[in-house]
Amino acid sequence: MLIESRPATDPEVATLVEAQQRELRDADGGLPGQATVTHDDIRYLVAVAGGRAVACGGLQALDADTGELKRMYVRPAYRGRGIARQLLAALEELAYRQGHTTVCLETGTYLPAAIGLYRSCGYQPIPVYGEYVGNPHSVCFAKRLLVAA
């Protein structure tokens, strides 16, 4: 498997982000969610297996010290192979190279597999922040990057 950087305008990134957003809407019982959109200020990494983009994740700077993980997604047929863990490590390395000392993220209470992944990779619960305040389904985590991931 290869993990590579892709621009926000990449059609495979857009397809993966759309699938991620659709799955989130289905998982939370159809509650209104964010619009399906990629952002130019998010640096995307894509996992490629057999020539096909099978997973994505992004990093957005919140400030000079903090990066936020966005749009983590693995196609269902590729889950359970450690791809998310490898992608997460690559995103942490990207954050470190960009000078961030902390990485944070938001996920939903209805995504126990995602919560388990983040906890097993050293992420600790933090108070809900930013646009997620007031969302009863949001849980947030952070990890301090002391050395390169």
From TrEMBL:
Cross-referenced Pfam families: Acetyltransf_1 (PF00583)
InterPro entries tied to this protein: Acyl_CoA_acyltransferase (IPR016181), Bact_Acetyltransf (IPR050832), GNAT_dom (IPR000182)
Keyword Acyltransferase: yes
Entry keywords, A to Z: Acyltransferase, Transferase
Domain N-acetyltransferase, residue spans: 3-146
Coiled coil segments of this chain: none
Single GO MF descriptor: acyltransferase activity, transferring groups other than amino-acyl groups
Name of the protein described by the UniProt record: Acetyltransferase (GNAT) family protein
Organism the protein comes from: Micromonospora eburnea
